[in-house]
Each structure stands twice: as C-alpha cells, then as structure tokens.
C-alpha cells in the first residue's frame, strides 16, 4: 500500500476549493444577481435561488379573484420562479462546479421545451 501525504493532499484540495470559489465569485460578479421571475394575470414574483421571495407585485386587476385564488397563483408563480432561479444558477456555475453537485443543491437546467423555460439563456442573450 502506498503512503499518502495527508498534508500535501489536504493542501491540494484546499487550493482547488479556493480556485473554484474564486471562479464562482468572478462568474457571479460578471453576471449580476441570480434571480428567478414569473408573472401572470397581474402578479409578478421574484425569488433568489432556493426560493426565497425577494419581490412581489400585485396589480389591482389580480385582486378581483379573491384571496384563495390569489394565494394559489402566488404559490404557483413562486414555484415557477424557483425553477427558473435554479436553472440560472446551474448555467452560471456549470463550467466551474460539477453538474451532480449543482443538482444536489437543487440547481437543475430546465429543458428548452418546458413551459417554465425562459426565452433567453442565462448570461447569453436570447435563445
């Protein structure tokens, strides 16, 4: 059995992690904030990756449906926006972080033919 230099192996892993962290930070700095947005029938929702609600606009026209319908619509839009934020984060980091690790974190690409797919690729302009 070969001897393993734990200190050397640890130093290499730390260096790789540091380099990956710097690349991720640089990519996110270039791309700006990663958010997901969805809107429908006078309701606009914005979330951060993971689904934290960061913005909600309800126009008067949306109020005519009643509170139960309004709550359901906001929930549905938040889910759609969360998927979009995950898709954007996936594309922002996929060149730096392994796809399986991104998917473990809940960041998955949305297929182009999916109704939640946006009309543009993250950081690449129109599709």
List keywords for this structure.
single chain, 127 residues, alpha+beta, two-stranded antiparallel ribbon, 3 helices, elongated, disordered C terminus
Description of the structure:
The protein is of the alpha+beta class and 127 residues long. The chain has 3 helices and 5 strands, in the order H-E-E-E-H-H-E-E. It has a 3-stranded antiparallel beta sheet with strand order 1-2-3. Strands 4-5 form a two-stranded antiparallel sheet. The longest helix has 27 residues, at 67-93. It starts with 5 loop residues before the first helix and ends with a strand. Residues 120-127 have low confidence and may be disordered.
Radius of gyration: 19 Å
The description of the largest β-sheet is: 3 strands, antiparallel
Strand order of the largest sheet: 1-2-3
Estimate the helix proportion, in percent: 40-55%
Tally of contiguous helical segments: 3
Anisotropy-based shape: elongated
The total strand number stands at 5
Order of helices and strands: HEEEHHEE
Q: Which spans have pLDDT < 50 for at least 5 consecutive residues?
A: 120-127
List the helices and strands and how they pair.
Elements: H1 6-31, E1 36-40, E2 43-47, E3 53-58, H2 67-93, H3 99-104, E4 120-121, E5 125-126
Antiparallel strand pairs: 1-2, 2-3, 4-5
Q: What's the short version?
A:
Strands 1-2-3 form a 3-stranded antiparallel beta sheet. A two-stranded antiparallel sheet has the order 4-5. Strand 4 (120-121) and strand 5 (125-126) form a beta hairpin.
């Amino acid at each position: 059995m070969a001897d393993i230099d734990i200190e050397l192996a640890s130093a290499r892993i730390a260096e790789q992690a540091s380099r990956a962290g710097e690349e991720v930070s640089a990519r996110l700095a270039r791309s700006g904030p990663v958010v997901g947005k969805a809107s429908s029938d006078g309701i606009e929702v914005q979330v951060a990756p993971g689904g934290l609600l960061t913005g909600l606009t309800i126009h008067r026209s949306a109020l005519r449906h009643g509170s139960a319908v309004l709550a359901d619509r906001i929930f549905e839009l938040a889910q759609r926006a969360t998927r979009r934020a995950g898709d954007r984060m996936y594309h922002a980091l996929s060149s730096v972080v392994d796809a399986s690790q991104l998917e473990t974190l809940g960041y998955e690409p949305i297929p182009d033919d999916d109704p939640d797919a946006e009309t543009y690729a993250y950081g690449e302009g129109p599709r």
